[in-house]
Specification:
By secondary structure, the protein is an alpha+beta fold. The chain is about 30% helix and about 30% strand.
Length: about 150
């Protein structure tokens, strides 16, 4: 198991968050490409709707390269009830190996891929989800959190 990379990023309200803020707690840290796009909205709304089940076990934090202002609009528009962090320089996204070559309409470019990490209370990455399907992801997270916490 590897330890999660530290970070210090602003949320949708401009408040700074770091990995140490979640020390001693379970954390679901997910990376997504862009606010208010179909797949990202589906994933965020599923996390929103599952929050009651997830928050008993872990905090949910989303990260993209979008601005604080974009996160604020996205969060308000869809009544998101969890933290979104802005990483415009994609340093944290890169640290979690979620900045990769992508293709869209025949063009190749670097961008954020949809990955999620469950981080234990001791700061270890205990589960990775690479190339996530946004439709069923929150259900998968809930099941895995229950399993991981029962093993401790």
């Amino acid at each position: 198991m590897k330890f999660a990379s530290d970070f210090k990023l602003p949320d949708q309200d401009g408040h700074m968050h770091s990995l140490s803020d979640y020390s001693g707690k379970w954390l679901v840290l997910y990376f997504y490409p862009k606010d208010d796009t179909p797949g990202c909205t589906t994933e965020a709304c599923n996390f929103r709707d599952a929050r009651a089940d997830i928050e008993m076990m872990a905090s949910v934090v989303g990260v993209s390269k979008d601005s604080v202002q974009s996160h604020k609009r996205f969060s308000e528009k869809y009544h998101l009830n969890f933290t979104l962090l802005s990483d415009p320089d994609h340093k944290v996204i890169e640290a979690y190996e979620s900045w990769k070559p992508k293709k869209f309409m025949g063009k190749e470019f670097l961008g954020t891929v949809r990955n999620t990490f469950i981080i234990s209370p001791t700061g270890q990455i205990v589960k990775e989800y690479l190339g996530v399907d946004p439709k069923n992801h929150s259900t998968e997270i809930i099941a895995d959190l229950k399993k991981l916490q029962s093993e401790q």
